[in-house]
Design a protein that fits this description.
Helix content of chain B: 25-40%
Number of strands of chain A: 0
Helix content of chain A: over 70%
Strand content of chain A: under 5%
Oligomer: heterodimer
Shape of chain A: globular
Structural class of chain A: mainly alpha
Largest sheet of chain B: 6 strands, mixed
Radius of gyration of chain A: 24 Å
Chain lengths: 325, 557
């Protein structure tokens, strides 16, 4: 319990530091949202409209300390304000309308990559020098080192355009009404295949190699030899004795990955025209949309910290050594 | 050792596979035709248009929103008149006729009879007056406008000074229904989810995050011109997705920039796919900060301009799709305004390295032994060209200019941070030079006013939103005042001619090329598109002329 409380205190400080950075960083960027909007409109706006727009969008001219106080207060009360680039939609609405797709895409890809990658890693290490161990790592590392953009474009072109196996854009067929019917869910699944597959392809190699390496180290431990000497079934030794102990670093990476899923997959969204917060974040940064940027960064920070916290708690369960320290 | 060798062979094998796959895909590329070719399917098909810079849509059809949803100002709301830059003509739209007062201090529009809002209410003069009241209140601008009075079917705009550029300024604003908007407590924050407009396609249908449909306005004033069943917009996070949809034949209209369009788009179906890039965009200028030496010297500006090879600039930077500028400074948008006398005798906008060198020598910027020039204070003739990093086309333009300048002994470094940083430098005057857009109105008044009107010049350090290059010219000021008071178009033309002569003398900017208006279409399902031979509009989907296209297209039979 003391361990958890101590971690909790640490996370609170980390949270404060990150929301403060979150507040400061956008304000160090040159310009303000309205002049950016003006520059982007390339003279389709009248300069006289700038003041009115500033007032309409509520661009803050208060001293930075007052803004900071207001910002902290808003965060504590859960008010994130109104998005500037999507005015007058509230930030919470912009994020909540997109985050579902982001979680679906990122979550699916992460779970598949982690589960399959770890299983392959376990197998590769268990049968060192076998077929899985000698063929897969180089292939997966090779695929993983492709520029993601290129790989995604290639997959889209080959499987989407040429072979026509999968849809080439969006989260579901345009014109379809979202509903919990098998037809619609099937449509969503079909649209999810290519985006998720490409993410899995580039990330699975890391999972596999990571697991394989720790697993090899674990395999040479005395307790494995003892287990073998006791005559336990190989499958039991592999999963319950070796893999369970080798899993700890993977759990940490999984927790981190889970947190970062919330940030969206910008390149995937661009290539597959998949909805999500990644492109939204890019737009917010380019347009200096402070409220939306803050809202998104806050969500990401909170998710990463929360995921880490959960991993910490899980560690207590998985690794007795943490408890005794 | 074995490990390394294995890696190498695997890599080679996989690379071979990848290349093979690419070759296969290249050969097998097919053009999926949208819908089908039979008339019945086309008649009920929606005109499909991609929007390349919105990853998702929000159901907000408020025309006051800073980022307006697509088609709000094109197919839902309409304006009093439509100016078509492709032909230089003005099409009467919600107004049938207009007349400026002799003293230039007012314009009276006569509204078209029988125009109804999509909810069945008639369009009245009061709607127009109210729209301007609301526009001024919410978004500002229109400072010359004293008031708008409505009487019968006539609307009179009164100005506080003679102001002829007002015609297109007020004429092209989207008109809103008073009976809807006056009932809203917070009109600028209302999402206007079910818009009521006078346009041809107003009924929002099946709104999803990445697509929505606009169906026919049941009360449109030109029912015989609503030949297509509706418009479908698709959201894309970037050009690549939109270009793929166009290449794949999934959209009818492709208004975004498509690189190498002949090969990537047209070649898949030469009979049905066409593009047209008329030079009606804004003049793209290379601006020199005239608040700084040596750019305050007209000879330097002209010499640098002569050093630039505009053919090379447009060929390399703009894939040959742009039209090089001449010394009137006017883009293809102002073709009918151009002074042929000036245009036919251009000197400083023609590529001439020898003359550029002579002019710089004469102006006192001598070449040193190393072939590099020095400024009058002895420092090397060096400066930066600032361009936003995301504009790859303009970046190559800047690079070509930089290479061109090396030939006359001037060193220009291309500086490309984020656009926001570039523009904030432009605004405060903290820059040497940059590639910029310019005003693109029906009348050249604003272009000349923002390129050489003293009233738009702000001192360095004070923010300005036009005339970044900070050039003012008293001679031009007099002509601009005269232009603003001239109500007669032929008189305006005379003054515009003189303004071009002055521009030619003063070289306030270095004009590079007319920005092309990108546009491509696939006429498998719909016909009646504007073309070079029938330029009744451009192929833009964000221009006032878009409504002309929407009311001209018809399903292929």
């Amino acid at each position: 319990m003391r361990f958890i409380l101590r971690r909790l205190g640490f996370y609170l400080i980390a949270f404060w530091a990150s929301i403060t950075l979150n507040f400061l960083l956008p304000r160090f960027m040159p310009g303000d949202p309205v002049s950016r909007m003006f520059a982007r409109s390339q003279d389709r706006m009248q300069p006289e409209q700038i003041e009115a727009l500033r007032k309409l969008l509520g661009v803050d001219d208060r001293p930075i300390w007052e803004q900071y106080a207001g910002y902290l207060q808003n965060i504590l009360t859960g008010q994130m304000g109104v998005s500037i680039s999507r005015f007058p939609t509230p930030v919470t609405e912009v994020i909540s309308s997109q985050i579902g797709w982001t979680l679906l895409l990122g979550g699916t890809a992460l779970v598949i990559a982690a589960v399959v990658g770890n299983l392959l890693g376990i197998l590769a290490a268990w049968r060192r020098g076998g077929a899985v161990d000698s063929a897969l790592p180089p292939v997966l590392v090779f695929i993983g080192s492709f520029p993601y953009f290129w790989l995604a474009m290639g997959a889209l072109y080959l499987f989407g355009v040429v072979l026509g196996w999968f849809p080439i854009r969006h989260a579901f067929t345009d014109g379809a009404e979202p509903a919990f019917t098998t037809e619609f869910l099937g449509d969503v699944a079909a649209h999810l295949v290519l985006p998720a597959l490409t993410i899995v392809l580039v990330s699975i190699g890391g999972w596999m190699l990571g697991m394989r390496n720790t697993m090899i180290a674990t395999n040479s431990e005395d307790y494995i030899t003892l287990a073998e000497a006791k005559g336990l079934r190989p499958a039991r030794i592999m999963l319950r004795y070796a893999a369970r102990n080798a899993m700890l670093p993977s759990v940490t990476s999984f927790g981190m990955g889970l947190g970062f899923v919330v940030g969206g997959a910008l390149l995937t969204e661009v290539v597959f025209a998949y909805p999500g917060v990644g492109y939204q974040l890019l737009n917010a940064v380019q347009g200096l949309d402070y409220p939306l940027m803050q809202g998104l960064f806050l969500t990401i920070t909170a998710a990463v910290l929360l995921a880490n916290f959960l991993v910490d708690i899980l560690y207590v369960r998985l690794d007795p050594r943490v408890r005794s320290n | 050792m074995t490990q390394t060798r294995f890696f190498t062979s695997a890599r080679i094998a996989a690379a071979g596979l990848a290349v093979g796959a690419m070759l296969l895909t290249g050969c097998a590329a097919t053009g999926n035709k949208p819908g089908g070719t039979d008339a019945a399917a086309n008649a009920s098909a929606f005109l499909t248009i991609p929007r390349e810079d919105m990853g998702t849509f929000v159901q907000n059809f408020n025309p006051f929103a800073p980022t307006v949803n697509p088609m709000v100002q094109q197919s839902i709301y309409e304006s009093l008149l439509v100016f078509n830059p492709a032909q230089g003509n003005t099409v009467p739209w919600l107004a049938t006729d207009w007349k400026a007062a002799d003293d230039g201090k007012s314009i009276t529009f006569t509204l078209r009879d029988g125009v109804k809002w999509s909810d069945g209410q008639p369009l009245v003069a009061d709607d127009v007056a109210y729209t301007f009241e609301l526009q001024k209140k919410l978004k500002g601008g229109y400072e010359y406008l004293d008031g708008v009075s409505a009487e019968g079917n006539k609307v009179t705009f009164n100005f506080n000074k003679p102001w002829s550029p007002a015609l297109y300024d007020v004429g092209q604003l989207s008109i809103l229904p008073k009976h809807i908007w006056s009932a809203l407590a917070d009109p600028e924050k209302d999402a206007n989810a079910k818009p009521v407009g006078t346009g041809p396609y107003t009924e929002v249908d099946n709104f999803q995050a990445q697509s929505f449909v606009l169906k026919k306005n049941p009360n449109y004033w030109q029912p015989d011109k609503q030949k297509i069943a509706g418009i479908k917009m698709l959201a894309f996070a970037g050009n690549d997705g939109a270009n793929l949809a166009a290449a794949n034949g999934d959209v009818d209209w492709a208004p975004q920039y498509i690189p190498n369009i002949e090969k990537t788009f047209v070649s898949k179906d030469k009979d049905h796919r066409h593009y047209w890039f008329p030079p009606t965009g804004a003049m793209i200028n290379w601006q020199l900060n005239t608040a700084k030496a040596p750019f305050n010297d007209v000879d330097v500006r002209k010499a640098l301009s002569m050093a630039v090879d505009r053919d090379q600039v447009t060929k390399i930077g703009m894939s040959g799709y742009a039209q090089p500028a001449d010394c009137t400074g006017l883009s293809g948008n102002y073709e009918t305004w151009k002074n042929t006398q000036v245009k036919d005798n251009c000197t400083w906008t023609n590529h001439d390295v020898q003359k550029a060198n002579e002019l710089l020598d004469k102006a006192g910027y001598a070449k040193g032994a190393d072939g590099k020039r020095t400024l009058k204070d002895g420092k090397p003739f060096e400066f930066k060209i600032s361009v936003g990093s995301s504009s790859s086309d303009w970046l190559s333009v800047a690079n070509v200019i930089s290479q061109n300048l090396a030939e006359v002994g001037v060193t220009a470094k291309v500086d490309s941070p984020d656009w926001a940083a570039v523009v904030s430098g432009y605004e405060t005057g903290d820059f040497d030079s940059g590639i910029v857009w310019s005003a693109n109105d029906p009348s050249p008044y604003k272009y000349f006013n923002t390129s050489m009107g003293s009233s738009t010049v702000k001192p360095v350090g004070t923010k300005t939103f036009d005339n970044y290059h900070r050039f003012g010219d008293p001679k031009a000021d007099a002509l601009l005042t005269e232009f603003a008071t001239a109500t007669d178009q032929s008189k305006q033309k005379d003054i515009a001619n003189k303004l071009q002569e002055e521009y030619n003398d003063a070289a306030p900017l270095v004009p590079l090329f007319s920005g092309p208006e990108w546009g491509a279409y696939n006429d498998t399902r719909f016909i009646g598109w504007p073309t070079q031979d029938n330029p009744y509009a451009t192929l833009s989907v964000r221009a006032p002329t878009t409504v002309l296209v929407l009311t001209s297209l018809e399903p292929r039979k």
